[in-house]
Specification:
By secondary structure, the protein is an alpha+beta fold. It is about 30% helix and about 35% strand. It is built from 5 helices and 8 strands. It has an 8-stranded mixed β-sheet, sandwiched between helices. Strand 1 and strand 2 form a beta hairpin. The model has no long low-confidence stretch (mean pLDDT about 95). The structure holds coenzyme A. The site of coenzyme A has 19 residues, from strand 5, helix 4 and helix 5.
Length: about 190
């Protein structure tokens, strides 16, 4: 179920984000700052503080309550955040689509965690949110993220020039999507 805690192996779990994650998210993002810099928007200094993360999480959780975003945290054996995965811009009606964004703590990268989390999120998006499609975009040379998407069944469908402001510049992006199902929309309340 969407609100469950999902074990991913080696003591790592995926669960919905809560306000209690603010301090460990700030610590993880601070630790991973240089690692993530080429692939992320420029952030204000407050982003790396517990208070800044509290503000960000309050916004994310309000968006979750409104059905616009579904935020998950990757957490270690002591329930500390070591990654984040968001389905953003959730759209229903005939589109039934969302945009996926993610990061994994530098100390946990390269162990298959993003791949495991994205696979699970695709299942939850199809079975619980009843989405038809997930989209993700990466800057042209983000090979690690492109590998994650390929391993999770995403297919490239285009290139968007100057798509997002990443690491100080408007960057071209490769666009990927995964179609989750082609069946009728059932159980949807929109
Ligand atoms: C992208 C990211 C989430 C991947 O997390 P992860 O847990 O390390 O991912 P996985 O271990 O599941 O898979 C990574 C794959 O990329 C490959 N990879 C990693 N770095 C690479 C590099 N520099 N060049 C080529 N391949 C690379 C790994 O070998 C692995 O592929 P494989 O299983 O075929 O060997 C993580 O690197 C990250 O947080 N990056 C910074 C933020 C970011 O880029 N977010 C995505 C924005 S689109």
């Amino acid at each position: 179920m969407i609100d469950d805690v999902h074990p991913l192996g080696a003591g790592i779990r995926l669960r919905p984000t809560t306000m209690a994650d603010a301090a460990s998210r700030a610590a993880s993002l601070t630790r991973s700052r240089a690692y993530m810099k080429p692939w992320e928007p420029e952030r204000p200094e407050s982003f790396y503080t517990e208070e800044g993360q509290r503000e960000r999480l309050a916004g994310l959780l309000a968006d979750r309550a409104a059905g616009r975003v579904m935020p998950w945290v990757l957490c270690d054996g002591e329930d500390r955040a070591v990654g984040g995965f968001n389905l953003n811009a959730v759209a229903l009606g005939p589109f039934r689509s969302a945009t996926l964004g993610y990061w994994v703590d530098v100390a946990h990268a390269g162990r298959g965690l993003a791949t495991a989390a994205v696979r699970l999120i695709c299942e939850l998006a199809r079975d619980e949110l009843r989405l038809h499609r997930i989209e993700a975009g990466t800057v042209l040379d983000n090979t690690a993220s492109q590998r994650v998407l390929a391993k999770c069944g995403f297919e490239e469908f285009g290139m968007a020039p100057a798509y997002l402001h990443i690491d100080g510049e408007w960057r071209d992006h490769r666009l990927f999507q995964r179609i989750l199902h082609d069946g009728p929309v059932t159980g949807a309340e929109d």
